[in-house]
Amino acid sequence: MSADMGTFRVDVEIENPANPGEKRTISSVLVDTGAELSWFPAEVLESLGIDRYNKWHFRQADGTILERWVGGAYIYVAGKRTNDDVVFGEPGDLVLLGSRTLEGLNFRIEPVTKRLVDAGPAPAAVA
Known about the structure:
Blueprint: E1 9-15, E2 23-31, E3 38-41, H1 42-47, E4 54-59, E5 65-77, E6 80-89, E7 96-97, H2 99-104, E8 107-110, E9 115-118
Parallel strand pairs: 2-7, 3-6
Antiparallel strand pairs: 1-2, 1-5, 4-5, 5-6, 8-9
C-alpha cells in the first residue's frame, strides 16, 4: 500500500476575524480528519495579529503529549469560509486542516478523487 493512500492537500487562506481584510495563503495543507483542530505555522498566525487565548494538550500517536497555543481565525478553502480555533504550530509540526474546520466549511471528503465536496444539507432537529 502507498504511504499516502487516502491523503491529499489543499490551499488554505487565513484571516484575523478581529482585523479582516488581510489574508495569508498556506499552500499544500494536509487534510487530516484524524486531527480535531487545524494546525498552521505560528509565524503565519502571528503575522496576521491573531491572539493566542488558550492552551490545549494533544496526544500524539506514540502517546506523547504536546502543549500548544490556540487562537481564533477565519479559514477559507475552495471558496468557503468558516471561523474556528486554530493551533499555533511550532517548527517540526505538521500543517493540517482538521475535522472541525472541515465540518464548519460543510465539506466532506471524496476518497476516490481525493477532493473536498459539499456535504449537502446539515442535519437539523425537528420540533
